[in-house]
Amino acid sequence: MSLLLKQIKKEAKKQAQLSKKQALPMLRDQFIAEHPAIGTFDEATGKPVTEKLIRDRANAYVRSIEKGPPAVFRRELMRLESEVERVPETERKIITPEDLLGKVGVPVVGDRSIRMANPTDQPYVGAGIGSIRGVPLDREIFAEGGIGFSADSPGTGKGWASMRGIAAKKQGNIRMAAEETGREPIGIYSALGMESIDFSTPALTAMIAQIPAIGIPKRELRAFDKTIREGFGKVKGIPEWVGLEDEDVFDQILGRGNFSREGSGALRIRILDEMKKKRWQNVGFPRYDDVVETFTRPDLVDIPPSGAGMSMFRADPEVDVFEEPYHMSYDTVIPAKKGEEYFGGLVESVPPEVMFPSIFEELSQIIDVSGKPLDYQSQRGSLMMNPKLYEEYTPEKIDQLIKYMNETLGTDYAEGGEVSNSDAYRQDGSLKSETGFIGPIINKHSGKTMTELSVGVVIGGREIEIPSMVPTLSKEERIALQNLRVGVDPIPQSIIQKAKSHAIKRIEAGLSPFFEAEPPEKSSGGALSLENVEIF
Fold it and tell me: What's the number of CA atoms in the CB half-sphere (13 Å) around residue 426?
């Protein structure tokens, strides 16, 4: 039995077991539980949420079900005690602010949608999303947008996906940044608003795919189609709209088959703008907010407007944009360095003026057509519209980013790239090197600078402390140390073996196993005995 059929049978059983009278108190309780808490800001009223406001809205919600058509009750009953269906996503690689030092960042805007883990050079296979808050879909839907695109693109040369015109302008922006600064360009994600998801294919596809399960009357579906075809007021009609019941409706909104992909995104936005209106919600049409909740990454819900830094890619200014064959929402790729596509992302989003301080300083000096400086909203809009913006990451800017993250996000990054005082000494009380053998590395979990990462080993019959960060480590082993939860995860044996071998050679030469800027003369005595040393 298919997953979809099981879901439909489950919801049918729920409806058969509960009458409207039995369900209404439960639905009311669920409404209250899901309402924003007392004291939080209410966008509709512009005031804090009160107990009375919640109670009044809950009563109005119950009345809408009591007096509404059967489709409304069916929809709400399917939502009862339901959860948002989640899908596996590729794990993010967390970078530190210092990883950006010496690079040039280029803002790349995108929506906040989820992306089901899947290589971007392959079509989706396996199970997609089959329901929206308990309402079964008549087909599985694959979420393929969002910040996970770069992480899913190893070896493909893909950095970001967009429509051709926008992608070409952004690639020109990337080339300009690289040419004018001589620095490596990094594409840095900046979030669009919550409803930017409307352009992507999953949002409208999921709305239409719920209609059969809800059982909206045909007269309402046809009334909706009539509104789309004829338009109203200043909104122009779309005579070529095939209609919600037409077998080609998904081809039309996806721009496939006999329908052009060009303009399909604008069509999706237009249909959704109408479908989310109260007039249609009141007759049982799917709930738009449920779709947004399902297809939005939870860690991007509450970020500030244009919040930036959650995903980055190594842009390639030497390559032209190229066709994206598998993405259903976007047709063009902004290229990344092949084999090094995904750069990573900050542990959390930061405000755009923190991520791009010089850009916002420059934008604040621009005078608009009314003779006034650009307001903050217009400055944020420039991240999408202005193709000449970039940010050079100097030590001063990195320090400011670190300061903001430490004070606001609770990170513990060392400012100025120095080892913090509490970690500056070895167990024997001697001062650690500020560089070590391979230079400082920022630990991805603690945010602290590591130059030695000492480990105890037995050499010459006694245990001594030696550095694990030695020149003979491979790139993979250095990355492993970067991602190590110090004090929790064991240091890999291959690293300990290399560290011990390196220490023995230095001791044999009369040197300290630790890095010394100016090595002392070889010791004529007192060296450790290396008899019976076991290398492991």
Answer: 20
- Within 13 Å of residue 444, how many CA atoms lie on the same side as its CB? 16
DSSP 200: S
Query: How far apart, in whole angstroms, are the C-alpha atoms of residue 406 and residue 400?
Result: 10
Q: What is the pTM of this model?
A: 0.74
Euclidean distance between CA atoms 499 and 68, whole angstroms: 73
End-to-end CA distance of the chain: 54
Q: Are 104 and 180 spatial neighbours (Cβ–Cβ below 8 Å)?
A: no
The C-alpha atoms of residue 477 and residue 467 are separated, in whole angstroms, by: 14
Category of 243 on φ-ψ map: left (φ > 0), alpha (ψ -120 to 50) or beta? left
Task: List all residues 6 or more positions away from 430 whose beta carbon is below 8 Å from its beta carbon.
Answer: none
What would the pLDDT profile of 404-426 be if each residue is shown by its tens digit?
A: 999 999 888 887 543 344 456 67
Exposure of 22 by Cβ count < 10 A (0-12 exposed, 13-18 middle, 19+ buried)? exposed
Three-state secondary structure call for residue 268: helix
* Residue corresponding to tokens 């399917």: 78
Q: Indicate the SS3 state at residue 4.
A: helix
Backbone angles phi, psi at 458, to 5 degrees: -95, 120
Looking at residue 517, the DSSP 8-state letter turns out to be S
Residue that has been written with the tokens 């509709």 in this structure: 44
Distance CA 483, CA 93 (A): 9
Burial class of residue 216, CB neighbours in 10 A (0-12, 13-18, 19+): buried
Cα→Cα distances 264→201, 332, 464, Å: 9, 15, 67
pLDDT digits (tens, 9 = 90+) for 338-347: 999 999 999 9
Q: Which residues pair with 25 in a beta bridge?
A: none
Burial status of residue 240 (CB atoms within 10 A of its CB: 0-12, 13-18, 19 or more): exposed
Query: Are β-strands 185-191 and 104-110 bridged in parallel, bridged antiparallel, or unpaired?
Result: parallel
Tens digit of each residue's pLDDT (9 = 90 or more) over 99-143: 999 999 999 999 999 999 999 999 987 778 999 999 999 999 999
